[in-house]
Write a structure and sequence with these properties.
2 copies of one chain form a homodimer.
Chain A: H1 2-8, H2 11-19, H3 23-31, H4 35-47, H5 53-59, H6 62-71, H7 74-82, H8 86-95, H9 98-107, H10 113-122, H11 129-132, E1 139-141, H12 146-157, E2 165-169, E3 175-180, H13 181-186, H14 193-196, E4 204-205, H15 210-219, E5 224-228, E6 234-239, H16 240-258, H17 272-304, H18 313-337, H19 344-377, H20 382-410, H21 415-419, H22 421-445
Parallel strand pairs in A: 1-2, 4-5
Antiparallel strand pairs in A: 2-3, 5-6
C-alpha cells in the first residue's frame, strides 16, 4: 500500500499511514523496499517530523540503517538523536562511519546534558555495560517518603516508558538499594525509601561485558540492572529490552563466528566483495591446512602403492570434522551461557564426558567401517588400519573440540572464533596423519606390502 | 561453606544459609555438588519449608532437576508445585517421566483452580504459547475506574512480583485493550479503563509457537504478551523472563541441531550411552555418505592411475564443507530470527547474494590451488581440473547451503536440523563426483592419460 502511494507521490498520505504504524512494523515493511524507496519513506518521516522516525531507525536491519544514515545530513542525524534515549543515541552513533560520527558529534549541542552523557558513553569499551546503558533512570535518596517517591515516579513516567525499579542512593549518588514499583504500591505512604528498599542489589560495573550483564539478568529474573562506576555511584541502567537484544546478538555472533565468518556480514549484506573479504582469512587458513593434508596423502601414498587406501580418506576426514564440531559446539555454547565454567572439577568432568561419548561413537563407527573395509578390500591390514585410525581420530577430535575453545577462553579470546575453522582444519590434518601412520604400522606388523 | 556444613551435619545452619541466598545463586552453587549432596541440600529445603525451594528447582540444570525430582515422593512434588506460578508448575511437570507425572497430577488437589489450569495447559502442544503461558494476570473490565484499578493492582501485587500491564476485557472475557502501569499512574482517577486503554494489542493465540512469541516481544519491546483462545478470550500471558529463556533455549537448540545432535544432551549429560545414542543417527547418516564418497574415489582412481590426483581430495571436500556450512548457518540463523523470510523477492536476493560471495571465494581459492597444483604436479590437466572443480563445488555448496534449510522450513521441519550433517554429507559426495568428472573431462580434452 505504501509502495503504491510512493509511486503516486501521495506524500501526506504516506506520512499519515506510517505515523500510525508501530516502529517494528515499519521496519518489517522497509525490508521489502529497495534502498531508494527506503530513503524516500524515511526522508518523509524526518521532514514531516513524525515523532518516531528515530525509533524506526533503531528497528531497521543494520544494513538499511547504515544506508539511510550515510545519505542523511549530519544536522538531520543530530535532530533524530535528540528524540532518542541515551543508549539508543550511542547505538546509532556507533553505527556511523568515523568521519560522519565526528561531524554529528560536532554539531549536536554539547552543552545539553544528554549529549555530554553520550560522549562519555562512547568512551567505554565496545560491548561494555557503560557503552550500552541508558542514563535515564529514577534514583531517589533514602530519606524520600513513599508519597514523594510516587509523585516523582509520576513525573518521570511522562518521559520514559519502561520503568520497573526505583533506585535508592545516598547523598554521594552511591547505590544503596532498589525498590520495585510493586513495593511502592504496597508500602505505607509515610515511610521513606530507606525503610522499604531492598539493600542487596545485583549491579554491574561500567566495564562489565554485556554478555555477563545479560546472564545476570536472566539468572535473577531482573527487568533492569543498575550500572555503577568505580566509586559505586549509579550512572545508568541496562533494561530488559536491551538484554533481549544482547541475547539475540550474542547468539547470532557466535553462529557466524563458528562458521568462520562474522556478523559484520549483516551490515554489508549487499556488498559481495566486502562479505567475501570477511570470510576470506579463515577460508585461506583452512585451504592451507587442506593443501598440507593433501601433501601428506601424496607423500604416504607413493610409499604404499595401494589404491584402496585412498577410498577411506573421506571417511577419516569427514568423521573427524563431524565429531570435532559437535564437541566444540557444545563447549562453545556451554561457555557462552555460563553452563560450562573453567574450574578444574567441572572442566575435567566435561572433557571426560565428551571423551566417553566420542569413544562410544568411535567404536561403533570403527567397527562398521572395518567390516565394510574387509568385504570391500579383502586386504589383511587395511580394515584394521582404518578401524584403529578412525577410533583414534575421533578421540583426538573430541579432545581438540573441548581444548581449543577452552584454551581460547583462557587466553581472553572469544571461544566461538576457534571452534569452527580451527578445530576443523587441525582435525583434518591430524586425521590424515594418523591414518597413514597407522597404515604404515599395521602393514609392517602384518608383513604386507602396500 | 555449605559443603562443610553438610559434612558436619549442621542442618539448621545450612537451611538458614540457603534461605538467604537468591535462587539463581543456589543453582550455581548446586552445580558444584555431587547428585547426592544436591539431594541432601534440597531435601532440607523442602522439609524445613524454605519458601523458595520451588524457585530453586526452576533455576537448576535440567539434568540436576530431573535427578532431584525422580528421587522425591509425588506428594512432595505436589506441595512444591503449589508454591509455583502456573507456567512454572507446567514446566516442572513437563520435565517429569510420564509415570511420575501421572502420579503427581493424581495427588494434587484437582478442585483447586490453579491445578485445573495446569491440566488444561498440559494439553497444549509443546512449545506453544498455551503451554508456556502464565495464567495469573490482571484483567479488568472497561468500566473499572482508574481508582478501582489501582486498588485492584495493589491487591494483585501482594502475590505476583512481575506486573507490567493491566489487560482490559469486555464482559465475555475478550481482550479489548491494554494499559501499561504507567498509564494508570498518569491518568485521572475518575476516568475508566475503557477511556485510557490502548485498543491495539499485540496478542498471540494459544497455538502460536514460542519462537514467534519471542520474536514479537522483541520486535515491539513488550514486557509481556497476552495469549487468547479461539474466542479471543484472554487466557494467559507470556512474561519477559520467559521470553528471555525462549531466546536462550531456541539458540541453544539450534546450535545443537546444527552440530547434528539435540539439546536433550543437556538432560542426560552424565549418561554417555544416552548422549551417544542421540548423536548416532546423524553420524551414521554421514558415515554412509562418506563411504559412498570413498567408493566414488576408488571407482575413478582406478581409471586414472595418477596418484597426484588424490592429493586434492581433502581440498575439495574441506572447502565444500566450509562454504556450505557458512551459507547454511547464515540461512538457518536468518530464518530463526525472522530476518530471512521465505517470500520470493527476499529469497531470490539472499540466494543470489550468497552465490556471488561463493563465486568470489571460489575464484580466489581456485586460482591459488591451480597455481599450487601447477608447481606441484607440472601436469597439463590436473591444475585446470582442480581449479574448475573447486569453483563448481563451492558454487554448488553455497546453493545447497541456502536451499536445504529453506526447503526444510517450507516442509514444516526445523531448518537447523538440515543444516549441519545433511548439507555437509551431500556436499562431500557432490564435491568428489564433480572433481572426478572434471578430471575425466579435462584429461580427455587435453588428450592426456591418467
Amino acid at each position: 500500500m505504501v509502495r503504491r502511494l510512493l509511486r503516486r507521490g501521495g506524500r501526506g498520505r504516506i506520512a499519515r499511514a506510517v505515523a500510525n504504524m508501530r516502529p517494528g512494523d515499519v521496519a518489517v515493511m522497509m525490508r521489502a523496499f529497495t534502498p531508494a524507496e527506503q530513503f524516500d519513506v524515511f526522508k518523509l518521516l524526518v521532514t514531516e517530523e513524525i515523532g518516531h522516525a528515530g525509533e524506526i531507525l533503531l528497528e531497521l536491519d543494520p544494513q538499511s540503517r547504515l544506508g539511510l544514515l550515510t545519505q542523511m545530513k549530519p544536522e538531520t542525524i543530530g535532530r533524530l538523536l535528540e528524540t532518542l534515549s541515551s543508549d539508543d543515541a550511542v547505538f546509532v552513533l556507533d553505527a556511523l562511519p568515523e568521519e560522519l560520527q565526528k561531524q554529528v558529534i560536532a554539531i549536536v549541542d554539547l552543552e545539553e546534558e544528554k549529549f555530554s552523557d553520550v560522549q562519555a558513553q562512547l568512551a567505554y569499551a565496545d560491548d561494555s555495560a557503560g557503552r550500552i546503558m541508558d542514563t535515564e533512570f529514577l534514583a531517589l535518596e533514602e530519606s524520600t517518603s513513599i508519597a514523594d517517591a510516587t509523585e516523582k515516579l509520576r513525573n518521570f513516567a511522562r518521559d520514559v516508558d519502561m520503568i520497573s525499579y526505583i533506585y535508592v542512593i545516598d547523598d554521594h549518588g552511591r547505590l544503596t538499594g532498589v525498590s520495585p514499583l510493586r513495593t511502592l504500591l504496597l508500602a505505607d505512604p509515610d515511610k521513606n525509601l530507606g525503610e522499604v528498599k531492598n539493600p542487596s542489589v545485583i549491579r554491574v560495573h561500567t566495564d562489565t561485558d554485556q554478555e555477563e550483564v545479560a546472564q545476570l539478568a536472566a539468572r535473577y529474573d531482573l527487568l533492569a540492572i543498575p550500572v555503577t562506576d568505580d566509586e559505586n555511584r549509579l550512572v545508568g541502567i541496562v533494561t530488559i529490552d536491551d538484554i533481549l537484544d544482547i541475547f539475540k546478538d550474542e547468539a547470532t555472533e557466535d553462529f557466524f563466528k563458528m562458521a568462520g565468518t562474522s556478523d559484520d556480514e549483516l551490515v554489508y549484506e549487499d556488498r559481495s566483495l566486502k562479505v567475501a573479504g570477511i570470510r576470506l582469512p579463515w577460508i585461506l587458513f583452512n585451504l592451507v591446512g587442506l593443501l598440507l593434508a593433501g601433501l601428506v596423502v601424496n607423500r604416504f601414498e607413493s610409499t604404499f602403492h595401494t589404491a584402496l587406501l585412498v577410498g577411506f580418506i573421506p571417511v577419516i576426514m569427514g568423521m573427524a570434522g563431524n565429531i570435532g564440531s559437535q564437541t566444540s559446539t557444545i563447549a562453545v555454547r556451554g561457555l557462552a551461557t555460563g553452563r560450562l565454567k573453567i574450574v578444574p572439577g567441572q572442566l575435567k568432568r566435561f572433557t571426560w564426558q565428551q571423551m566417553k561419548v566420542g569413544a562410544i561413537l568411535g567404536i561403533t563407527c570403527s567397527l562398521l567401517v572395518s567390516i565394510f573395509a574387509f568385504f570391500q578390500t579383502m586386504h589383511p591390514a587395511i580394515p584394521v588400519a582404518v578401524g584403529v585410525s578412525l577410533f583414534l581420530t575421533v578421540q583426538l577430535a573430541s579432545l581438540n573440540g573441548v581444548l581449543v575453545p577452552v584454551l581460547f577462553q583462557r587466553l581472553g579470546f572469544d571461544p566461538a572464533i576457534a571452534s569452527g575453522p580451527l578445530v576443523t582444519t587441525s582435525n583434518d590434518v591430524l586425521g590424515i596423519l594418523i591414518y597413514f601412520s597407522m597404515t604404515a604400522l599395521f602393514f609392517s606388523l602384518l608383513g604386507v606390502g602396500g
